[in-house]
């Protein structure tokens, strides 16, 4: 698992646990299949490589700032998109 996959999967799992949600609850609230969410949380797929709508739905369920999810804690995120 590369660094980006590890950061994303760790962020998803930790936030889900902080909110007291099961993987099933996240998947249902995001409108996706459980197996699809599990692939993100287990690092088998990158959420950042999915559609924007899917990423935003999962971020909304987990109350994650999409900018923080995509760019980490970097204050200078605009340099990463150039």
What does this protein structure show overall?
- With 82 residues, this protein is mostly helical.
- The chain contains five helices and no strands.
- Helix content is 60%, strand content 0%.
- It is globular, with a radius of gyration of 12 Å.
Distance between the termini: 25 Å
What is the H/E string?
A: HHHHH
Helix content: 55-70%
**Global shape:** globular
- Number of helical regions: 5
Radius of gyration: 12 Å
Q: Approximately how much beta-strand content do the residues carry?
A: under 5%
Using DSSP, what is the number of strands?
Answer: 0
Q: Show unreliable segments.
A: none
Main sheet characteristics: none
Helix/strand structural class: mainly alpha
- What is the residue-mean pLDDT, rounded to a whole number? 88
List the helices and strands and how they pair.
Layout (H helix, E strand, L loop, with lengths): L2 H16 L4 H8 L3 H8 L10 H11 L3 H6 L11
In a few lines, what is going on in this structure?
It is built from 5 helices and no strands.
Name some characteristics of this structure:
globular, 82 residues, 0% strand, mainly alpha
């Amino acid at each position: 698992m590369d660094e980006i996959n590890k950061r994303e999967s760790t962020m998803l799992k930790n936030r889900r646990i902080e909110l007291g949600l099961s993987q099933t609850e996240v998947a249902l609230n995001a409108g996706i299949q459980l197996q699809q969410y599990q692939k993100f949380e287990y690092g088998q797929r990158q959420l950042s490589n999915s559609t924007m709508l899917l990423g935003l739905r999962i971020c909304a369920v987990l109350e994650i700032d999409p900018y923080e999810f995509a760019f980490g804690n970097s204050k200078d995120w605009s340099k990463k998109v150039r």
